[in-house]
Amino acid sequence: MKRNIINSGLFAAAILLLSLTTAFAKEKSALNVKLAYNVVDNNFSYLTLAAKTKVDGKLQPVEGLTFKLYLDKDSSGNGLGLIGKVKTNEIGKTTASIPPSLQQIWNANPNHTFIAISDATNEYEESNTEITANKAMITIDTSEDKSVVATVSEFVNGAWVPVKDVEMKLGVKRECSDLPIGDEATYTTDSLGKVTGEFKKEGLPGNELGAIVLVAKVEDNDTYGNLRVETTVRWGKPFKVEGNFFHRALWATRFHSPIWLVVMAYSIIGGVWGTVIYLIVIMIRIKKAGLENQ
Question: Which residue among 24, 221, 269, 278 is buried most deeply as judged by most CB within 10 Å?
Fold first, then answer.
């Protein structure tokens, strides 16, 4: 009887402890994952991934979270080819390029599905994110009247076919961002897949030869992802490096220092040497006067 009472007490305590643990267990946060497909200069494809979660009602980046990236699906719905394992950095982002081992799968179809999977952790729920992108490319051409023509094409039935109604941007590559070439912020391709923009940034600084980099890009397109192509033209203002080493300045050489500094320095030097010479002359006179009084 006593043993039954003890067992019942232990069972009740275990139930209570389990209830308390469940009640106070930290609820896992849901992840907001953005996966994007990118192509640069029509030959380099890669994925970008950004992971965020809500903290106090605001989306904050998630650092150190591991994702598995897959290319396409098999018949069971699982990833057909592993692109790789990646981990988010301090701003919740990471990138991955498509490895050569998946080249056969990549060449087999004109469009592909990209899958990003993260397992559940103590803090976050598991996530499964997918995007689909068609193979596409941009060609860019220029004319002597400083017009820029860009064409968007997609790969269909073994051939590149122009695509209409695609929004794109034409710009000039700068240090922090791309500067639009004219007044229009965006352009839309016509039935031939083309857009035409007039370069209006006259006098824009280039390199020493006046070369600048033109950019044609498609951003966050639901069908093609992010496409970007660049070309170099000599439409800028040549940048000339004017050395001021020999100009009058504090850091210049001796004879190119500021005049006031030269005057002050030589005045001090003259004053010191003048005092020394004066003392020598006085000493000579004193010695001569002493000899005359003997």
Answer: 221
